[in-house]
C-alpha cells in the first residue's frame, strides 16, 4: 500500500484519505488473494467462494476437454 500511496503527492488530508479509502476498497473487493484460493476477501466474507471455485472448475474442465478435442483433430489431420 505504501508504495502506491507514496508515489503521489497529496496536498490536503482529504486527498490522502480518499486515496487510502480507494486502495482499501480495491484490496478488499477486487484484488485476488492467493491465501484465499485466489478469491477476494469480499467473496469469502459474502460466502461466494465455493460458488466461484465451482464455476472456475467447470471452465477449467471445458478448456481441457476442448484442448484434448483439438489435439485429436490435429493428430488425425497429420496422419
Automatic annotation (TrEMBL):
<feature type="domain" description="Integrase catalytic">
    <location>
        <begin position="9"/>
        <end position="41"/>
    </location>
</feature>
<dbReference type="Pfam" id="PF13683">
    <property type="entry name" value="rve_3"/>
</dbReference>
<dbReference type="InterPro" id="IPR001584">
    <property type="entry name" value="Integrase_cat-core"/>
</dbReference>
<dbReference type="InterPro" id="IPR012337">
    <property type="entry name" value="RNaseH-like_sf"/>
</dbReference>
<protein>
    <recommendedName>
        <fullName>Integrase catalytic domain-containing protein</fullName>
    </recommendedName>
</protein>
<dbReference type="GO" id="GO:0015074">
    <property type="term" value="P:DNA integration"/>
</dbReference>
